[in-house]
């Protein structure tokens, strides 16, 4: 845990509809835990304040009692709404910085979160970039500045997190920089389809000490979900 972890929050977005997957991604088994449980465990070593941003009424796997669960204020506003809700909770708990992640990043590490937080420096946001694609759900944010702009954008109907980077002082972190820092090629991989999931399971089976999926009781694809795919 970082020495200033009390001023840092970890925010995990899991309120997407998982349309392409056909089942809630937060419940996908990976070893002896679900994707959401894994992400919570990983980021709990970065911050004592772990916030899960979910859709209204969304069922979640069992999580530690100190995890903060917040629901989207307006269903259907996509990941920008989830970011804003998470940042609002981070601010309420006194966090000045936050690392925001999606629940479906199986290769996410605490080291990556710390690396991105360390890249904030004088910026308001530090975000990975690859081939002009931004990764807002694997990024570090200054809570006050990002929350203010996110709320302004949502108030005018904007849903795209990318617009945040046009308004905030942004530190772009190229994928090449992450590779040079020692992070694996798949560090930004997320799971959107059943085929993606199968590839991830195979990768974990090939790792020492890792296991494949075990059975998890998950709600069906028609369960109450909200927001856009995240």
Number of strand segments: 10
Number of domains: 1
Q: What's the helical proportion of residues?
A: 25-40%
- N-to-C terminal Cα separation, in Å? 27 Å
Q: Outline the low-pLDDT stretches.
A: 1-5, 211-230
Class per helix and strand makeup = alpha/beta
What string, H for helix and E for strand, traces the elements in order?
Answer: EEEHEEHEHEEEHHEHH
Q: Classify the fold: give the CATH topology.
A: Spore Coat Polysaccharide Biosynthesis Protein SpsA, Chain A
- CATH arch. level architecture: Alpha-Beta Complex
Mean pLDDT: 85
Rg from alpha-carbon coordinates: 16 Å
Give the amount of beta strand, in percent: 15-25%
The CATH homologous superfamily name equals Spore Coat Polysaccharide Biosynthesis Protein SpsA, Chain A
**CATH secondary-structure class:** Alpha Beta
What spatial form do the alpha-carbon principal axes imply? globular
Multimeric state: single chain
For the biggest sheet, the summary is: 8 strands, mixed
User: Treating each run of at least 4 consecutive H or I residues as one helix, how many helices?
Assistant: 7
Question: Briefly, what is this?
Answer:
The chain has 230 residues and is of the alpha/beta class. It contains 7 helices and 10 strands. The protein starts with 7 loop residues before the first strand and ends in a 25-residue tail after the last helix.
